[in-house]
Design brief:
Rossmann fold, 23% helix, globular, 5-stranded mixed β-sheet, 6 helices, glutamine amidotransferase, 3-stranded mixed β-sheet, PdxT/SNO, EC 3.5.1.2, alpha/beta
C-alpha cells in the first residue's frame, strides 16, 4: 500500500516512478527514494540481491536520496535498538537512529510537526501532519546535518524495548525532543510517512533537491521495493507492480 501511495503522490507532481530491484538499474537513474517497510526484511532482501554496494556507491556519488521510516534507518551511519546481529546499512547521513523508538505497531500515532524549512520552500501551513508507524527517531546528528523537524517527548521516556528477546533494551534518554526529519547535502530523511497524507510538500521538496543537481524527469525518481521480483528492469510503471 505504501508504494502505491508514494507513486500516486509523485504522479500528482507530474513524475513517474520505477521500482529498483537490481543493482544495475541504479546506473540509469539520478535520484532515489527508499520508502518505508520492515527494515530487517528490506535489508535481508537487499543483501540477497547484492544491492548494498550499488546503493552505497549511489549515495557516495552525491546523488539525491530520500529515505522515509525504514529508508531513514538505511541511510543512517549508525542504528541502535536493532535485532541481535544488527542489520546492514547504506549510510551517508551523519546521524544515529533508534530503529523502533516510538514502540510497536500499536503505538503508531499522528502529530502536527513544525516544519519551518518546508514551509519557507514550499509554502502552505506552518505544520505538517506526520504519520508515525512503528517509527524510528534520530537521537544524534553530526555538524553538517540540518534538522528539519523534531517531536517533543517526556523527559523520562524510556527507549522502547520489545518483549521479543532479540530487541536490545535501552536506558532512559534525557532529551526533551527527538529529531524526525533531517537533510544533509543531497540526502533527506523522514521518520514518518508523508505519502499517507494529502500534503505532497515533502515530495515536491525532494524533487527540487533532485532538480538542483539535474532536471527531474520521469526516469529520475524511483523506489527500492521490499518485494524484489524478476520484473523487467526496463519497464516504467505509474504504480508499483508486485
Amino acid at each position: 500500500m505504501l508504494y502505491y501511495l508514494l507513486f500516486a503522490a509523485l504522479r500528482r507532481l507530474g513524475v513517474k516512478g520505477v521500482e529498483i530491484r537490481k543493482p544495475e538499474q541504479l546506473q540509469s537513474i539520478s535520484s532515489l527514494i527508499i520508502p518505508g517497510g520492515e527494515s530487517t526484511t528490506m535489508a535481508k532482501l537487499a543483501e540477497f540481491y547484492n544491492l548494498f554496494p550499488a546503493l552505497r556507491e549511489f549515495v557516495q556519488m552525491g546523488k539525491p536520496v530520500w529515505g522515509t521510516c525504514a529508508g531513514l534507518i538505511f541511510l543512517a551511519n549508525k542504528a541502535v535498538g536493532q535485532k541481535e546481529g544488527g542489520q546492514f546499512l547504506v549510510g551517508g547521513l551523519d546521524c544515529t537512529v533508534h530503529r523502533n523508538y516510538f514502540g510497536s505497531q500499536l503505538q503508531s500515532f499522528e502529530a502536527e510537526l513544525l516544519v519551518p524549512e518546508l514551509t519557507s520552500k514550499e509554502g502552505g501551513p506552518e505544520t505538517f501532519r506526520g504519520v508515525f508507524i512503528r517509527a524510528p527517531a534520530i537521537l544524534e546528528v553530526g555538524p553538517e546535518v540540518e534538522v528539519l523537524a523534531d517531536y517533543p517527548i517526556p523527559s523520562n521516556k524510556v527507549l522502547y524495548s520489545s518483549s521479543d528477546v532479540e530487541i536490545q533494551e535501552e536506558s532512559a534518554v534525557p532529551e526533551k525532543k527527538v529529531i524526525v526529519a533531517v537533510k544533509q547535502g543531497k540526502l533527506l530523511g523522514t521518520a514518518f510517512h508523508p505519502e499517507l497524507t494529502a500534503d505532497i510538500r515533502w515530495h515536491s521538496y525532494f524533487l527540487k533537491m533532485a532538480s538542483d543537481l539535474r532536471g527531474a524527469t520521469s526516469d529520475d525518481i524511483v523506489a527500492v521495493s521490499e518485494a524484489a521480483s524478476s520484473s523487467d528492469p526496463q519497464t516504467k510503471y505509474d504504480l508499483p507492480i508486485f
